[in-house]
UniProtKB/TrEMBL annotation:
NDH-1 is composed of 14 different subunits. Subunits NuoA, H, J, K, L, M, N constitute the membrane sector of the complex. It is found in: Cell membrane; Membrane. It catalyses: a quinone + NADH + 5 H(+)(in) = a quinol + NAD(+) + 4 H(+)(out). Residues 401-462 are annotated as: Disordered. This is NADH-quinone oxidoreductase subunit H. Belongs to the complex I subunit 1 family. Residues 416-428 have a biased composition (Pro residues). It comes from Streptomyces kronopolitis.
Amino acid sequence: MMQQLDQLAAGSALAREDLSMFGHDPWWLVVIKAVFCFAFLMLTVLFSIVWERKVVAWMQLRIGPNRHGPWGMLQSLADGIKLMLKEDLVVKRADKVVYILAPVVAAIPAFMAIAVIPFGPAGNEISIFGVRTPMQLTDLPIGILYILATASVGIYGIVLAGWSSGSTYPLLGGLRSCAQMISYEIAMGMSFAAVFLYSGSMSTSTIVESQHNRWYVLLLPVSFIIYIVAMVGETNRAPFDMPESEGDLVGGFNTEYSSIKFAMFMLAEYVNMVTVSAVAITLFLGGWRAPWPISTFWEGANHGWWPLLWFTLKVQLLLFFFIWLRGTLPRVRYDQFMKLGWKVLIPVSLVWLMLVATVRALKNEGYNFSQIVLYVAGGAVALLLISLLVDFFRRGEATEETDGDEAFDPMAGGFPVPPLPGQELPPVPRRRPRGDRELIVSGRVDTVSDDNAHDGKGGDGA
């Protein structure tokens, strides 16, 4: 086991970026590959919408779509046609130019990230009309940074949609989306950095090639978990769908939109789900490679058109994870959501990145695996002990400070506020017996009991 890890680390450190096979396709082949990427996203979105409604219906013991097409598979296509044919309304108080451009700004970047995702091995080219070409539109030495950049631009569409609508609730939804993007892209970027350290590259094809012995989900499990949480927050999906929470924002940033512009926001959300799933597969789940049991006994599993099948199946599994979360978990409070991003994900990702960098540095210095584990484990235990001691003394100081304070009043400032550390809410008053309750009429307290009021002795309080 130790020798395998040593060989894997040495091989990934020597990984080279060979992008010479890109940039030589004729223009008509580039168009075909671009149309394929667009069609792959659109068909996956149409299937995912129906699949989500079916899976959630099965979880709730319902039937789900079952009218349009076999097993209701054409329901999302019918919904798209219906939205295109509905009346398109423009709000009077809206900023017309920004209001119309916002759905476009949200949708177009969602399609752009798929350009650098490998659907198959770059070295094993396929033949399209007699021309040999890799199963990838293009690749860049900084392909992952390109994906992060396009994801960041897409958020502007949601923010501008909320601002340009001229309404309060869409504005709040846009501001929430902006805060989510800032909070969760930091943790997402640091989870990517751990992959860069092991693969030695930011190129998507090189990262997949460096996982030929073992997928990074096994070597970097903390980075994978952080990315999974961050990608759910980035796509505004339940339980993190704060920008469009129906309970308190009616519909959020898209409240004032209708017809095709509303459909473009929904399209951008589902395309982003496919994109972040594809990025997770590329970075942590071996990309287009066949799963472990198949790749061991079938040598041709990673050649020809078969990698496209494995890639598609992995995408569908991660989309099922999105659906499962939506049907299982309730929406969290916004303060809980921000606390998770700033106080949990970012510190954990920072510490994990330091550990990964330490392991890589020690490996480059020639230390063996047992020594690396000893040093890293010792440092982790020391940090845990220090944090426990600091937390213990902080709790003691907070208890001493609050011992002499007055009782906590949650309505002291006129608005309900949660208690600070060390404070406790007052006990909830219990319902008094019927004979002891006071009857309040027209803003006045009537001391006559309910029984006397029914007997006619309560005066005007009766």
